[in-house]
Design goal:
- The protein is of the alpha/beta class.
- Helices cover 39% and strands 21% of the residues.
- The strands form two sheets. The protein has a seven-stranded mixed sheet with strand order 4-5-3-2-1-11-12. The chain has a five-stranded mixed sheet with strand order 6-7-8-10-9, covered by helices on one side.
- A hairpin with a 2-residue loop joins strand 4 and strand 5.
- The longest helix is centred in the C-terminal third of the chain and has 21 residues.
- Bound molecules: manganese (II) ion.
- The site of manganese (II) ion (MN) has 8 residues, from loops.
- GO terms for molecular function: hydrolase activity.
Amino acid sequence: MAEDDDRPIRVRTLFLSDLHLGTRGCQAGMLLGFLRDYDADTIYLVGDIVDGWQLKSGWYWPQAHNDVVQKLLRKVRKGTHVVYLPGNHDEFLRNYVGTTFGGIEIADTAIHESADGRRYLVIHGDQFDMVMRHQRWLAHLGDGAYTLALWLNTILNRFRRRLGLSYWSLSAWAKLKVKNAVSFIGKFEEILAEEAKRRGAQGVICGHIHHAADRSIGDLRYLNTGDWVESCTGIIEHYDGRIEVIHYPSLLRAKEAENQAQAQPQLPPGRRAVA
Ligand SMILES: [Mn+2]
């Protein structure tokens, strides 16, 4: 059945992170397409939306990046509830946690309750860089040290920012050491899942490491929104509470293949149109 292509698909919730607006890496064109294709009751912007670190070292703000912001604001005007959880690249917004900006709510973390009654911790994830680095020590030192590490992580990077240094990113550091990347990602996933458990949630939805995922860790569900620099991924929640990772480029390819198949309907049975 042919769908009306102009009408956006309405979902209950949309989770997006790591757009990195203000950098050359941001795939704003793809992102605009995605925002045109999807509408939601609630949108969580899960950090690193605007890249403040990059903008400081040279202004890069093409029209397409403006269009993304306009598109989001238009959704707010049309009734979408937008919650912005700052990450390390837009941590200047952390000074505004608890306030509302043009209808956009700024929060540090959120607990999202899905339509099927599950609770998900929504958080960017950089808050745990320090914990990850010193995980073994912290395990010995207990809960107080853990809280201290979270606090130190924030303070350290605030100072680095004042000094005009770049954010010390554990994920960037790990990516340099490619061999460690796999175990790094595994560790990040575990720590975030643990945090969700600590907060009495059944799952976590985060970003930060630019690596989309949907997997079970024990009885917890770990979801990562990925990014709009390399992978162009996001997470949607349907009205029945089903949550899934969308890889937008694959979706576009599938759509195109479908259109081509519809354009040549007289294929003999058993044969498929191959694009
Ligand atoms: Mn980040």
